[in-house]
């Protein structure tokens, strides 16, 4: 992304620095140009409760480690700065304590540690993000959709100026958009972003969401990044595409293994599939996520893998003329309520752990897993993912893999905010929970 103003002769006067907390909320501090050096060096103060703010606009999921005592510092990374408009720039932030040490609950810092561990193992990753969202009225209500058809050109032209401005603002910010198109749901769009190294890819997704939200405001509408904006409508995913390399050689193609994978590539896919039940709480752990995690939603509701299988939690896109970037693995279970940094870290951690332990690749699933009998799924080592958020959070809490990858403080914070959602809203219906949190993750 651009590290200076994209407008010649214009100096930005305001910088907005953001972090994404365990509940998937984007939080911010804004400074004038004169304070940017301080924001980037010693940082700006923030309570530890930033890691415990919840999606119900004011709740705090206190823990033994996160309370009213203490202070931390947010430092922005100016190397990742992006231009939003002639006088406004954005930069991602990370948490440090008052002695300058990284805060273990910090999502971006956690991903940095995981990427460093990959490098120590001789591995490099590229990550590409997809983001689905729904345009809604300023109050979160439905917009007219009489002309809408799934993937229809009418939807693109109905919101033509919105689409044009999003693409133009992304170009200004250095966000590389590979495609933006109408999706299946009414007033739903999907944006695909260019693969980058894991931290840069996560940063790019954060600023893309900010851009989409700002353009929508200019048009008098809003954007829902909820996993299920309307209970009777389609869900929104935030799929991640992962490529792994050792000594610049791809692991998911060029090998003699299944679907052209190398031995390490098979182990990496096996590691992700085996850990998928544990990963759910990080990838799709919000109280709304269970409304999407169902068969038939293309949400990857089964822990299995398959080449181009959109109902598998892990979809392999094989190398070939139609895949100029080469083979990659798409993790479909992720939704927009997830913290993108934690989600990427968790997936990478499971892939590397699969390589380390030479995990056995389950059989490829070549059909819709929902059409198999329970016995057939058991024979193929296919497990259904849960839509019971209480069970998902308990599995996350008990996961040795996640605690090894993310660290106890980060997992405890993730568990705390999601458990708060479950206990605070125990008797919700699909309609009431979708309505209440439609704009919870909007920017």
Compact description:
The protein is built from 12 helices and 16 strands.
Could you explain how this protein is built, in words?
By secondary structure, the chain is an alpha+beta fold. It has 2 domains: 90 residues, Glutamine synthetase, N-terminal domain (Ubiquitin-like (UB roll)); 324 residues, Creatine Kinase, Chain A, domain 2, CATH 3.30.590. It has 12 helices and 16 strands. The protein is globular and about 60 Å long. This is Glutamine synthetase I. Pfam families: Gln-synt_C (PF00120).
Radius of gyration: 21 Å
How many helical stretches? 12
The CATH class of the largest domain is identified as Alpha Beta
Provide mean pLDDT, rounded.
Answer: 95
Number of separate strands = 16
**Unreliable stretches covering 5 or more consecutive residues:** none
Domains (count)? 2
CATH architecture field of the largest domain: 2-Layer Sandwich
By CATH, the superfamily of the largest domain comes out as Glutamine synthetase/guanido kinase, catalytic domain
Structural class: alpha+beta
The quaternary organization reads as single chain
Order of helices and strands: EEHEEEEHEHHEEHEEEHEEEHHEHHHH
